[in-house]
Amino acid sequence: MTPLFADDSEESAFRAEAGLFAQIVDDGEADPTTRAKCLNVIGQEVRMLARAHQSLVWSRQRQANQLRSLLREYYPGALDAFGDDLVGRDALAVLRIAPTPTAGRKLTVKRIEAVLRKAGRQRYLAVTAQRIHEALHADQLPVRAGLEHAYGASARSLIAVITTMVAETATLQGEVEAVFRFHPRTVWSGSSRFAASPPQDKSKNLNVNVVTYNYLHMRNG
Length: 221
Fold this sequence. Notes:
Helices cover 71% and strands 0% of the residues. By secondary structure, it is mostly helical. It has 2 domains: 1-71 and 163-221, no CATH class; 76-139.
């Protein structure tokens, strides 16, 4: 996953800016215009990152839908194995090494367990591996001779694209959450996950709160 900051100096600059903005907003004697400008900058930052994140989520889903349509044509066992979660770590890890029915039938339960473990799964390894193994080894309509390789190559490319998009979506999500971490009082979300405590005057952060509310619901929806 791409790091949030290019180096320590960039992170230090970001922290310094966040501290300055928070100090200005919290200062009851600060010029109202200056305070409003600070809030506006932070709000724009959140909006820009949240929109980019949302756009990437939608793009990732379009690629997943394309992969689902492709698998339905020649590899229904994969859909039985992973259902609608084609962007999940299990599906991407297994389909990366078995993008065709022939490759899927060659996988043993132990091999699938090893792949799932490497992808990050820690719980229900044996049960999940057995379920995937049964789905991939189930009887399927044969693919027309000579087409399986082409289908597999197409699926492999989509899987590679989706894998990259999953990683970059997580990176953008981290960028948005970094704003909440580094502006704990200025950008108040009403959630202890992103903010230390809400400001006394909630009305002064109204615009930022709306952005935060929309982002959290977009992320959880």
